[in-house]
Design a protein that fits this description.
Elements lengths: L1 H12 L7 H26 L5 H30 L13 H31 L9 H13 L1
Length: about 150
């Protein structure tokens, strides 16, 4: 449903051609914005003091996805020159493609480890959630609070 609303905004309202970067990024930002609004409504009904936490979390995600796309755009020519061009659906993958995929999964895991604890932390601070934070999560939260 969110993707359909993103396509409606990008292709029908703003009239960006399908398949272009403008269309894709508009759909991406609309989907995450709507997700933030939906989570905001849950936050608001749960506890009015924590309403900004969902917007912080969900609106940061498309920014980082756009950054990832930028990094991929820059590194793709370097990979081609080295003989490693990612080709989805290919049955046998050279080791370099497997390494790239592992790096991608590692980046996603790292990003969620950096952003998920602060999103959940406001509930702990207000005493609404009794999650036991481990030392790594505590370290990440302290770093996050210094950045924000």
């Amino acid at each position: 449903m969110l993707a359909g609303l993103g396509r409606l905004v990008a292709n029908k309202l703003l009239k960006f051609p399908r398949g272009t970067n403008l269309s894709s990024y508009t759909q991406l930002y609309v989907a995450f914005f709507l997700s933030a609004v939906l989570h905001f409504s849950g936050d608001f009904t749960y506890e009015k003091r924590i309403t900004s936490r969902s917007f912080k979390f969900f609106l940061l995600q498309p920014v980082v996805i756009a950054f990832e796309d930028f990094v991929i755009h820059i590194t793709k020519p370097l990979l081609r020159r080295g003989g490693t061009e990612p080709k989805p659906g290919k049955p046998r993958k050279p080791w370099a493609e497997v390494v790239l995929r592992v790096i991608g999964y590692g980046w996603v895991t790292l990003w969620l480890c950096l952003t998920l604890p602060p999103w959940r932390d406001e509930l702990n601070v207000l005493g609404l959630d009794s999650a036991d934070r481990r030392p790594i999560a505590e370290f990440l939260l302290n770093k996050w609070n210094k950045w924000v």
